[in-house]
Specification:
Blueprint (H helix, E strand, L loop, with lengths): L2 H14 L45 H8 L7 E2 L15 E8 L10 H10 L3 E5 L1 H6 L1 H8 L4 E5 L23 H19 L5 E2 L6 E2 H9 L3 E2 L4 E2 L8 H9 L6 E5 L7 H14 L3 E2 L2 H4 L2
Parallel strand pairs: 2-3, 2-9, 2-10, 3-4, 5-7, 8-9
Antiparallel strand pairs: 1-6
Helix pairs in contact: 2-6, 3-9, 6-7, 8-9
Length: about 290
């Protein structure tokens, strides 16, 4: 891709991330009772613990978070911050594909073509799932949770930017104080702990925006706040050709953000075109937890 074309696509990516919650998503997966992951050879689903083992309690309670961090005033706002993971800290030819499922009105669809491609090609990926998306797609969640190439991560409870002052991103109001930061992270964390047996410790904020005070809270809660280095689908607004060009150009060590809740978008076709090119050039794909030790 020539330099001018790359600059245009980069500019598009910078302004389009929040469209993962735009109207028009197609709901899928049903609303019946949660379908538990298929049992593995040992009698339980991969990645879970026996029911007799109680899940670990949160590192801090809500009251402790408010007492310790309620006075903090933020000094930064964006995709970075203290402890925020933006890339894999390597130049090796490894790339982490991450897919957000944002949930809520217009955002609870399921891109079956995208996930089907990843399954067929056995491409590992990290899936950041919002609480509302899980509620709308319980059977799909159960299937994904049982498949080792996919790891489940926390994409929040209400898909809010993470702030201690209510600062907004893309017109979406953020959490307003330290207590609401805790709620946004911990409520979905508790749901995932209950469904998976063990809690994930990777969190991405709604819109991926956060301030430095909120970032400190997430770290204190024992989670790793994950952002991205390559915006692969512009909040599910890019064409297949744009997705292909941007993802194919991702350097080694990239964390690519895309979306799996808009089946009408160009994400599936673009990823299906980009992955073979990257594999042919010697790249391999990893889950975040495989690299972030």
């Amino acid at each position: 891709m020539i330099a001018s074309r790359r600059a245009v696509l980069a500019a598009l990516a910078a302004g389009a991330l929040a469209d993962c919650d735009r109207p028009g998503g197609l709901a899928s997966g049903g609303r019946g009772a949660f379908a538990a992951p298929a049992a593995a050879a040992g009698g339980r689903a991969p990645g879970t613990v026996p029911p007799a083992v109680p899940p670990a309690a949160p590192v801090l309670t809500r009251a402790q978070v408010v007492a310790r961090y309620g006075h903090l005033r933020p000094h930064s706002w964006g995709f970075g911050g203290p402890g925020v993971v933006r890339d894999l800290h390597t130049s090796r030819r490894v790339i982490a594909l991450t897919f957000d499922a944002c949930g809520g009105p217009g955002g609870s669809g399921y891109d079956q073509a995208l996930i089907g491609f990843l399954r067929r090609r056995e491409v590992p990926a990290t899936l950041f799932l919002n609480s509302r998306w899980i509620d709308a797609n319980p059977a799909v969640f159960g299937q994904l949770a049982a498949e080792p190439p996919f790891e489940i991560a926390n994409h929040g409870t209400r898909h809010l930017p993470l702030s201690v002052t209510g600062r907004s991103a893309y017109g979406i109001g953020g959490t307003r104080n330290a207590g609401e930061v805790y709620d946004e992270v911990a409520t979905n964390q508790a749901k995932l702990r209950r469904l998976l047996g063990v809690p994930p410790h990777l969190f991405r904020a709604g819109t991926a925006y956060c301030d430095d005070a909120a970032a400190r809270i997430v770290t204190a809660m024992g989670d790793r706040l994950v952002s991205f280095s390559v915006n692969g689908d512009g909040g599910a607004t890019f064409t297949p050709g744009q997705v292909r060009s941007i993802v194919t150009a991702a350097p080694g060590g990239s964390i690519v953000i895309c979306h799996m809740n808009h089946p009408e978008s160009g994400t599936a076709q673009g990823i299906a075109a980009a992955v073979p090119h990257l594999l042919a050039r010697g790249y391999r794909f990893v889950r975040l937890s495989d690299e972030l030790r």
